[in-house]
Amino acid sequence: MRRTTAAAPSPAGPGSPAGGHGTGTGTGTGGAGAGLRTEFPFRLPRGYVDEHGTVHRDGVMRLATARDELVPLRDDRVRENSAYLSVVLISRVVTRIGAVDDIHPGVVEDLFASDLAFLQDFYRRINAEGHTRAAVTCPSCQEEFAVDLAGGRLGES
Q1: Can you name the residues that pair with 148 across neighbouring β-strands?
Q2: Which of 45, 123, 148, 149 has the fewest CB atoms inside 10 Å of its own CB, making it the most exposed?
Q3: Are 129 and 136 in contact (CB under 8 A)?
């Protein structure tokens, strides 16, 4: 499958799919600047710690293909332990975490559990629901609003 890069419309504001961050990847179909968005930036809650002790938090996940969901089913590690499916699947669709762009199951295994849970939810949101926003309720005032799970600067959603 061949992909081309096109600038995705990114209106600033909390309602945009990734908080107005970065560009998307498009198929080149559609009008000027229009295209299917296939890459979504995210920020891990804790971050991946590499072998040098550097913490990497900002990354990119691409939309999954049918192959991404089928290939892990032939993996012996998945056959032995079905819970390993998410590790293999996440390693196929995350294209970068910080400066690390060789994302393989070993990298995903070394993530903190909270970061893996975040990526599993993020995967579900962009592949099944088509967005990275979640509806939440303020525990103090009970006001409902949407937050963007893709993250942003500290204190932003």
Answers
A1: 133
A2: 45
A3: no
Residues 109-155: tens digit of each pLDDT: 999 999 999 999 999 999 987 655 667 788 888 887 667 665 544 44
Assess contact for 33 and 7: CB atoms under 8 A. Answer: yes
Among candidate residues 102, 100, 99, 75, the one with its CA nearest the CA of residue 87: 75
**Which phi and psi (to 5°) does residue 147 adopt?**
-120, 150
Asked if residue 4 lies in contact with residue 26, where contact means CB atoms within 8 angstroms, the answer is yes
Q: What is the pTM of this model?
A: 0.64
12: exposed, middle or buried (Cβ count in 10 Å: 0-12, 13-18, 19+): exposed
Locate 103 and state its tokens: 């994302």
Alpha-carbon span 16 to 87, nearest angstrom: 28
